[in-house]
From TrEMBL:
CDD domains: DHFR. One of its GO terms (molecular function) is dihydrofolate reductase activity. GO terms for biological process: dihydrofolate metabolic process; folic acid metabolic process; tetrahydrofolate biosynthetic process. InterPro entries: DHFR, DHFR-like_dom_sf, DHFR_dom. Gene3D superfamilies: Dihydrofolate Reductase, subunit A. The keyword Coiled coil does not apply. One of its GO terms (cellular component) is mitochondrion. It is an enzyme of class 1 (oxidoreductase). Keywords: Membrane, NADP, Oxidoreductase, Transmembrane, Transmembrane helix. It comes from Poecilia mexicana. Pathway: Cofactor biosynthesis; tetrahydrofolate biosynthesis; 5,6,7,8-tetrahydrofolate from 7,8-dihydrofolate: step 1/1. This is dihydrofolate reductase. The keyword Oxidoreductase applies.
Amino acid sequence: MSRILNGIVAVCPNLGIGKDGKLPWHPIRLSNEFAHFRKMTATPSVAGKTNVVIMGRKTWFSIPEKNRPLKGRINIVLSREYKVPPAGAHYLAADFSSALTLVDTELAEQADQVWVIGGSSLYKVIFFLLCLKVFSTLVHYIIFIFFFRFPGVPKELQEENGIQYKFEVYENI
């Protein structure tokens, strides 16, 4: 079955997404940006279905334990090392292809959109090969660029705790 496959990422101007399990702008918390992430990844397009988030092992462990698993979403963690899902994760897959197979078989009746949420090696796979849409937050946005607009994604420059950012959507057509 063909599902909507999306990527979502927040980056700093040099395209960094994290270091040592922390976001580049740590310790500053961007609550509105987190709310945007939650809304985008948790809101299914089909009533009664649940979105899936796929992430690497390091991304899973970078999420504070009190926030794992990400609520309202089916959490799949990728790891070649683990034999069972890490505590709190719903599912474990050895690689991205296995995760998609899991979504289309065991989770077929309940899964809606699939969201890739990190880390860098997983982004490399989906951005260049598979993803139809990439939702990006450019934190501390400097250059004004026009990209594809997606309904429900604010186009205005956002500011929070003295840091500016902008939500963008890139579409592979």
